[in-house]
């Protein structure tokens, strides 16, 4: 199946998911859309997030994508069920893969979740965890400053460590034994988060898990690409293409050669 995989996010964080999909399925074409004109979604109302998510879906469908990955925790929290019901194309979010892994690896049934204010406020992770095992304890913490720190590239700075200690102190005090990184920016801060939480607390990175789920679904439906040519990657944004290309390199792990700005994309 030569149709591309569609991925959208509010900005550049979803590139961590795109990177893992590229590694996991190196023959697949990808169309990525970052809604950089309206970032961040984490401060928006649920209705606004749903509206933006539907518009992002409509844009990606122009490319006849075979699956759409909602590489945004806030969008996944508020709009995933609506997108699944309203569109025929398969849709995968970033919450359930991480939840399933955390439930598997927790040793004492005490799971921590960190994310944007909107993601934590939605209660989506706690709900998904409780649906699997109601006996598990879930402790959540919003970490809004992690996003700008990741985008600035302050990945090992003392100020980042100090902020992480302040955010994560309550989770440590509650004895969480597993921590879900509930934002696609947070994998860049893994080293500092792990340093604060301690090496015995595994960090659940949804990006790798989402890539595995996408491959599993495409394999099951007979939609995996058999293309022997080099894959084609297309990147679109709603604002600041140059800034996206520069900052995005840290998230994607390689240079982004071309980014196109979309005007009136719906």
- Going across the major beta sheet, what is the strand order? 4-3-1-2-9-10
Beta-sheet strand percentage? 15-25%
CATH class of the largest domain: Alpha Beta
Assign the CATH topology of the largest domain: Rossmann fold
Describe this structure in words.
The protein is α/β, with parallel strands linked by helices. It has 2 domains: 5-93 and 208-261, Rossmann fold; 95-206, Rossmann fold (3-Layer(aba) Sandwich). It is 47% helix and 17% strand. The chain has helices spanning 15-24, 46-61, 73-86, 95-105, 117-122, 124-132, 146-152, 158-173, 190-197, 206-220, 241-252, and strands at 5-9, 30-34, 67-70, 91-92, 110-115, 137-142, 178-182, 203-205, 233-237, 259-261. Strands 4-3-1-2-9-10 form a 6-stranded parallel beta sheet, sandwiched between helices. The chain has a 4-stranded parallel beta sheet with strand order 6-5-7-8, with helices on both faces. Helix 11 links the parallel strand 9 and strand 10 (259-261). Helix 2 (46-61) packs across helix 3 (73-86) and helix 4 (95-105) crosses helix 10 (206-220). The relative contact order is 0.19. The mean pLDDT is 94.
């Amino acid at each position: 199946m030569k149709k591309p995989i569609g991925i959208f996010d509010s900005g550049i964080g979803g590139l961590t998911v795109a990177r893992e999909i590229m590694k996991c399925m190196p023959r697949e074409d990808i169309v990525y859309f970052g809604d950089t004109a309206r970032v961040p979604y984490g401060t928006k109302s649920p209705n606004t997030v749903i509206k933006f998510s539907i518009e992002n879906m409509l844009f990606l469908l122009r490319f006849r994508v075979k699956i759409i990955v909602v590489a945004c925790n806030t969008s996944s929290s508020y709009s995933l069920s609506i997108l699944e019901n309203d569109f025929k194309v398969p849709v995968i979010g970033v919450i359930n893969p991480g939840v399933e892994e955390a439930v598997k690896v927790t040793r004492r049934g005490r799971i921590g979740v960190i994310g944007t204010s909107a993601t934590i406020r939605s209660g989506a992770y706690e709900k998904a965890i409780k649906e699997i095992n109601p006996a598990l304890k879930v402790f959540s913490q919003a970490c809004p400053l992690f996003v700008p720190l990741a985008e600035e590239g302050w990945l090992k700075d003392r100020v980042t460590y100090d902020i992480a200690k302040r955010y994560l102190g309550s989770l440590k005090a509650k004895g969480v034994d597993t921590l879900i990184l509930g934002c696609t920016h947070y994998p860049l801060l893994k080293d500092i988060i792990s340093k604060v939480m301690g090496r015995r607390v595994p960090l659940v990175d949804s990006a790798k898990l989402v890539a595995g789920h996408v491959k599993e679904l495409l394999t099951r439906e007979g939609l995996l690409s058999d293309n022997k040519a080099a894959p084609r990657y297309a990147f679109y944004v709603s604002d600041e293409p140059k800034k996206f290309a520069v900052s995005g390199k840290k998230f994607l792990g390689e240079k982004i050669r071309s980014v196109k700005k979309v005007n009136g994309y719906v």
